[in-house]
Amino acid sequence: MSATKYILLASAVAMLAASCDLFDEDDITPDDTAPDETPADDPDPEAPEAEDDAFLTDDGGRIFSYVPAGDLLPASGPGHADTTIYRPDIGFPLEDAAFLNSQVYRYGGSQGSINGMDGGQCDASNYDYPWQDTFCESRSRNQIMCPDGGHEGVDIRAASCISETGASHWAVAVEDGRIIAPSSSRYTIRLQSDDGTLYRYMHLKMDALAVSDGEFVSKGQRIGKVSNDFFNASGERVPTTFHLHFEMYQNYAPDEETAPIFDQVSPYMTLVNAYEKKLRDAE
Length: 283
Ligand SMILES: [Zn+2]
Hints:
By secondary structure, this protein is of the alpha+beta class. The protein has helices at 3-19, 162-165, 268-282, and strands at 99-100, 154-157, 170-172, 177-180, 188-192, 198-202, 216-217, 222-225, 244-252, 261-265. It contains 3 helices and 10 strands; from the N terminus they run H-E-E-H-E-E-E-E-E-E-E-E-H. The strands form 2 sheets. Strands 1, 2, 4, 5, 6, 7, 9 and 10 form an 8-stranded antiparallel sheet that branches. Strand 9 (244-252) and strand 10 (261-265) form a beta hairpin. Residues 151, 153, 155, 245 line the site of zinc ion.
């Protein structure tokens, strides 16, 4: 990371910390008072500065920045400080500008008031940088990576708040692969690459998909529109916020005779890397 970007990142973290003044500290459980303040990527003073990396801006002229992996909003869960870029060559899963942040603990989320963020999902700050990780954000489900119950993916808002704009924001294939859709959950599209890496896209507009089950797609090909589709166990539609929930599974087998294990991993830094490449390519 360049020194300039590091400063931007540090100031973004400071701004977030300042915004949390509204939060009642007494309500924070002991586990939540010890966030990992270590930057995900210490700047190397010996490394030559790459001028091109100093500022990356999106098509709206906004400067991209992100909070380190594992640094979640206060009282929103332990997070998972995984800085690994698992797939350095994948594309970003949305065509347009996008904003990674919490759907539950920010404006428009059921727990937004915990962080003094009372308001609707279209609040302008939901559609701005810095990005914030939501892997292992608190949920009731138990997961291997988030043993106390956690959100096993990251949440991505589209370029605009669709409930207001009605705009179409497309999710695209992050790499070449085969579509497996829809799963029994009725709101999940899977994409599997040749080497078995599996991606799950959730909450797309399921009655207007651009792909079908078994179809082979190319990197960047449209899959479906970002939406709020969500169904309960009875199959009733229970809309969520407008966003893409994105998951990633590594395929691992120690040898050819052994059935592969699908290991869920945090896609956060893989997506940071993919988005930076996308912004750089657009310059
Ligand atoms: Zn999610």
